Amino acid sequence: MRILGIDPGLRRTGFGVIDADGPRLLYVASGTIVVPSDISLAARLKTILDHIREVAEQTRPDIAAMEKVFLNTNPTSTLLLGQARGAAMCGLADSGLEVHEYTALQIKKSVVGTGRAAKEQVQHMVQRLLALNGVPAADSADALACAICHAHMQPLATALAGRHPSRLSAGRTRNGRLIG
C-alpha cells in the first residue's frame, strides 16, 4: 500500500510518501510545499490545492493520511490552519484518495512511542524507521510520520472492523455491551 502523508500549513505544507508492505516501510518521496506569503489568501490556498494534486499525480498513492487541526491559543491561526487543511484535503479528494486523519498525539505516539515527543525526536525516528541517509526537514518528517502512523494503525483498524461483538471470544453481550 502506498501512503501519502500530509502535514498541512498555510506557509509550509509537508508531504511524504511511503510504501507499506506488512511491517516493512519503504521511503518513496517527500518535500515541502512553500507557499508565498505575499499573495492573497485565496491564491495561497489554491497553491496548496494544486501542489497536492501534483504530488498525488506523480506518486500515485493508494490512500492519504493527514494531521488533524489542533486548537491553538490564537483563533485566527487556528482558522487559517483549518483553511490550509481544507485546501490540502480537497486536493486529496480531487485525486480520488480516501483520507484518514490522526491527531499529533497519535502520530507522535505511533512513531516515537510518546505523544509528547519533540520535533527532533520525530525527525530522528522517521530517519531510522525509513533507513534514510539524512535527517528529513521538519515539515517532511511530520508528513512522513503521518504516513507511518497510518501504516501502523491501519492493520488494527481493519482487524477491528471485521469483528462483531457476537464473534469475539472474550465474552458475550448483555444489553448491547461486551462483557467478559
Overview of this protein structure:
This protein has five helices and seven strands; from the N terminus they run βββαβαβαααββ. It has 180 residues and is α/β, with parallel strands linked by helices. It has one domain: 2-Layer Sandwich (Nucleotidyltransferase, domain 5), CATH 3.30.420. The strands form two sheets. Strands 3-2-1-4-5 form a five-stranded mixed β-sheet. Helix 1 runs parallel beside helix 2, helix 3 packs across helix 5 and helix 4 packs across helix 5. The longest helix has 24 residues. It is globular. The C terminus is likely disordered.
User: Compute the gyration radius: what is it?
Assistant: 18 Å
User: What structural class results from the helix and strand content?
Assistant: alpha/beta
**Biggest sheet details:** 5 strands, mixed
Question: What is the global morphology?
Answer: globular
End-to-end CA span: 36 Å
The amount of helix comes to 40-55%
Quaternary state, please? single chain
What is the N-to-C succession of helices and strands?
EEEHEHEHHHEE
Label the CATH architecture. 2-Layer Sandwich
Domains (count): 1
Question: Could you report the average pLDDT, rounded to the nearest whole number?
Answer: 88
Strand runs, count: 7
Largest sheet, spatial ordering of strands:
3-2-1-4-5
Corresponding CATH superfamily: Ribonuclease H-like superfamily/Ribonuclease H
Low-pLDDT parts are 164-180
